[in-house]
Write a structure and sequence with these properties.
The protein is an alpha+beta fold. The protein has helices spanning 44-49, 92-105, 181-194, 196-203, 208-211, 256-269, 277-280, 334-354; strands at residues 61-66, 72-76, 81-84, 86-89, 126-132, 145-152, 155-160, 172-174, 212-219, 225-231, 239-245, 271-276, 317-319, 361-364.
């Protein structure tokens, strides 16, 4: 494996920690072990800390409460209460939406829009895979995402290495077509019943990760699910975040383009095309890029936040993450989320600079 020497960061005009170049180990998804990947602790949080921000890792926020005199109380899992005039939520879709739900249900943020949890996007995504026939094949060299293409105007495909994804052994099964979930389920179960030892060989395959290619197939078409707080099926005394069918077109659990990509790659490279069992048997829409749920809108009847990312009805409370995005983008949304966050930061700074009052703020991630 090629070893890179430490060098000054090429980003932010050279301000930042010393970095090392990519060693092409393929472990990007689970966290680069060499500091080559652009993670928050090496850019935005690193810069913020050196400008006076206090970073508190492994601190779980349970609720946010609006105070009668203005500002907010942030309650942590260990019983600590933090107070600030302004709070920024950036906990990702599942974290931010659950936190807003919990705070609203307890009457702590009573004005959060009833649109909370609506319009959740899966990026109209399906995930397929191919396991190479050659047990000695090693496809892990390189960054996680190494190639992309558009099979049609609405569909975008990326090929992924999945170093560290040992759990995929238990999630993959035979490739089965079918627009109707019930019929596809029966076909998948029939295939598993006819070839149980084939499935066992898949689950116990030697050098599984080295032989695996995973495809994320995304579309920019209109469909959605909904997130709600409901009783957990495992621990019914607890209320947890759960998914439901949304009000619009349902998010797909099957994309014919995704199966076709897996078949073509398997034929070309020599391997077995595979579906996620949660998609084929479970009929579930599986995504690596969940979006929305606290989306931007014109008012509280249309969205949860305004164009400045401020929560309707709660001045000084902001949402700055993927939950603000109101549509399927059809590509990996990381740069879209970054661009929207930088736009928020620029507008927020401009407002603070023009205002004589410089309020303190807290960011929850």
């Amino acid at each position: 494996m090629r070893r890179a020497s430490p060098s000054p960061t090429p980003f932010f005009d050279g301000e930042g920690p010393v970095r090392t170049g990519c060693r092409r180990c393929g472990a990007c998804l689970i966290g680069c072990p060499y500091g080559s990947k652009n993670t928050l602790d090496l850019n935005y949080l690193w810069l913020a800390e050196r400008r006076g921000a206090r970073i508190r890792p492994e601190t779980r926020v349970e609720t946010v409460a609006a105070m009668p005199e203005g500002g907010y109380e942030v309650h942590t899992a260990d019983g600590e209460v933090l107070r600030a005039a302004e709070v920024v939520l950036a906990a990702g879709v599942l974290g931010t939406v659950e936190l807003l739900f919990r705070s609203r249900e307890q009457g702590l943020l009573p004005h959060v829009s009833p649109r909370l949890g609506h319009g959740v996007r899966t990026n109209s995504e399906a995930i397929t895979a191919v396991l190479a026939d050659d047990p000695d094949a090693d496809l892990t060299r390189g960054p996680t995402i190494s190639s992309e293409f558009y099979p049609d105007e609405a569909t975008h495909v990326t090929q992924n290495r999945y170093v560290g994804g040992w759990h995929m052994r238990l999630q993959l099964g035979p490739l089965v077509d079918g627009e109707v979930p019930a019929r596809r389920r029966r076909a998948a179960l029939a295939e598993l019943g006819r070839h149980p030892f084939r499935q066992l060989r898949l689950m116990t395959a030697r050098n599984f990760i080295e032989r695996l290619s995973v495809f994320t197939v995304m579309q920019n078409v209109e469909n959605e699910i909904r997130l709600v707080m409901d009783r957990s099926p495992v621990t019914p005394w607890r209320r947890v975040l759960r998914s439901r069918t949304g009000g619009g077109a349902p998010a797909p659990s099957y994309l014919p383009q995704a199966n076709e990509v897996a078949r073509r790659f398997a034929e070309s490279a020599g391997g077995r095309p595979l579906n996620l069992l949660l998609e084929s048997v479970g009929g579930k829409s599986i995504t690596a890029h969940v979006l929305g749920g606290a989306a931007m809108g014109a008012d509280a009847s249309d969205g949860v936040i305004d164009t400045d990312h401020q929560v309707f009805g709660h001045p000084g409370l902001y949402v700055v993450d993927g939950s603000s995005i109101p549509a399927n983008v059809g590509v990996n949304p990381s740069l879209t989320i970054t661009a929207m966050a930088e736009r928020f930061a620029a507008r927020y700074r401009a407002r603070r600079t023009s205002s004589p009052d410089h309020a303190s703020s807290i960011g929850a991630q």
